[in-house]
Write a structure and sequence with these properties.
The chain has helices spanning 11-20, 37-40, 54-71, 111-128, 161-172, 195-204, 219-231, 248-252, 278-284, 293-308, and strands spanning 2-6, 25-29, 41-43, 49-51, 77-79, 94-97, 134-137, 149-150, 178-182, 185-186, 209-211, 217-218, 236-240, 261-263, 274-275. With 310 residues, it is α/β, with parallel strands linked by helices. α1 packs parallel to α3 and α3 runs antiparallel to α6.
Length: 310
Amino acid sequence: MRILITGGLGFIGSHLVNMLGDEHDIDIVDGFSQDYEGYKYIHRGNKGLDECNEIEKKHRGLNLKYRLELINNKYMSYYRYHAFTQLPLQQYDLVINCGALSEAILSQHFPEFTNKSIIDSLKCLKKFYPSTPFLHISSSMVYGTWEGLINEQYSLGSENLYGISKIKAETICDKKDVILRPIHVYGMGDGKFSIWMNLERQIKAKKPFLIEAASCIYIDDFKLAIKNILDNWQSGIYNISYDFIRSADAIKSVYPEPFTAQEKLGPTGKPRGSLDSSKLLHTFNFNFKYKDYESTIRDYYKKYEDFRKK
């Protein structure tokens, strides 16, 4: 297939370029630069927005280098467009839309960019490629805050601009598209708020490592889901998440330095429950590779250490 991947230099996008580039003809649209809001800045709780410190710059730079290696020799053309008002005059068999502000907390600081990157960009894509099916990466933030286990029928409603924008973007999709609603995708290449960056920073500051006890999905199993979707395309809306939650104990079991941990709330300032992914697994007839959080963390840390030492 000829596939256009927006945000192809981002965390999720670069992994998909790497996975699909040997079997398909991939084009990338991505306006990333080191001045990109989600790369240059970080939210510091009550202190608000700040530029990254040296530890954060080091980790974000490392993960950017990792993503660049992932996409190397895996694509046909790279289009450095930012707002998607310009797009390649090409016929595509599929558009995978990963290109947008990815860190929910930053939406309060960059409302115009949030709307342009999530809503306006998808409108432009749909205008350019009206007959092409889309695999649209949405977010669990469309549900806002919830308790317990929820499926795709749970009512939509968000308390921040990021979630509201994601809800609006889903309405731009149509019946031939697949919409994925992930919660906390993590793994090597995550440049915005990686586990190892957070740990190093908090240990140096002699502060507890903060972790939200909520659902998650490791990038390797996210890719596995994408592969199965492409092999057995059935349009619809699907949650994607494990049936286990994040825990500090799992991270302590692999990280060589001791640290204290403290549970934190979600991006809305309230706790979040879990996502039911049974519709995804049953529709596309597959199972996730990893069965517990600690196994994913062990694999993630090994990849981090191997790449850091290169």
